[in-house]
Amino acid sequence: MAEARQPDSPMRAVTISREYGSGGGEIAVRLAQRLGWRLVDHEVTVRVARELGVTVTEAEDHDERLEGFVTRLLNNMQWIDWMGLAQYDTITPPALPDEGSYQAALHRVVAAAASEGQVVIVGRGSQVLLRGRREVLHARVVAPLSQRVAYVARREGFTLEAAKERVALKDHDRVRYLRSAYRCDPADAHHYDLVINTAVLALDDAVELIARTLECKAQRLLVPEAELGPAGGLERYSGQPGDFRPPADAATPAAQGS
Fold first, then answer.
1. What domains can be seen in the chain, in order of their start residue?
2. Phi, psi of 196 (to 5 degrees)
């Protein structure tokens, strides 16, 4: 897709939330190319690792997952003879980030990326971390499970059964991560300006929809918040809506006089 840079846009960032296998990651790549903006995906983890003074691998153990590094390390190393190691008093556990310090660093990194501007940020709870900023567009990409499994099988070279297990695992990790870290359900459409189902729409069509929505939101930045929403600029109906019903406890005049 040809690059069509938009340097004068007042919008600072687009966040892309995605169901695994929906094509959301590919859409983010193409959108960044379409806008001429910088894609921020794995770079978030690299920056967080730098802030915390840990390796990228250690930071990745927190990335869009509920459990931290230490928990999984202990769960996966039950075979170690801890009593045998106890005799070596020089052995100390590595200094690793807890969930609180990781989340604080993640928030700083995501906020800094948005402030730098002209970025497409993939996942990492960015739709929540930047939800108060009107100059950021939030989009979510979804697709039916069967199509997502087929996507993962084709793109990652898995059998359909293995792809199904991978999709289930990634979905589980992402949902629990958002709920645990931010008390947020990623499927709640109210977190987004736009939700796109790629069941029928081509990925390039999805890119164009997001780019167009970005333009529309940019045009609304100067509108006072009190005038936003579906009622903005509308007058009241000329009469009562056809399905209007009075409250059940409101007695009619005829009933009151009887």
1. 13-143+189-229 (3.40.50.300)
2. -120, 130
Kindly state the helix (H) or strand (E) to which residue 212 belongs, with its residue range.
Answer: helix 203-218
Residue 166 to residues 3, 17, 127, 145, 163, Cα–Cα distance (Å):
33, 18, 24, 12, 5
Q: Is 158 left (phi over 0), alpha (psi -120 to 50) or beta?
A: beta
Give, to the nearest 10 degrees, the angle between helix 99-116 and helix 42-52: 120
pTM equals: 0.75
CB 144 within 8 A of CB 39: no
Q: pLDDT tens digits, the chain, 258 residues: what are they? A: 445 555 578 999 999 999 999 999 999 999 999 999 999 887 676 777 776 676 666 666 655 554 444 344 334 434 334 344 444 444 444 444 556 777 788 888 888 888 889 999 998 889 999 998 999 999 999 999 999 999 999 999 999 999 999 999 999 988 988 888 888 899 999 999 999 999 999 999 999 999 999 999 999 999 998 888 998 888 888 877 777 777 776 555 555 555
Is the separation of the CB atoms in 172 and 64 below 8 Å? no
Tell me which amino acid residue 61 is.
D
C-alpha span between 42 and 255 (Å, rounded): 69
CB-CB neighbours of 17 under 10 Å: 26
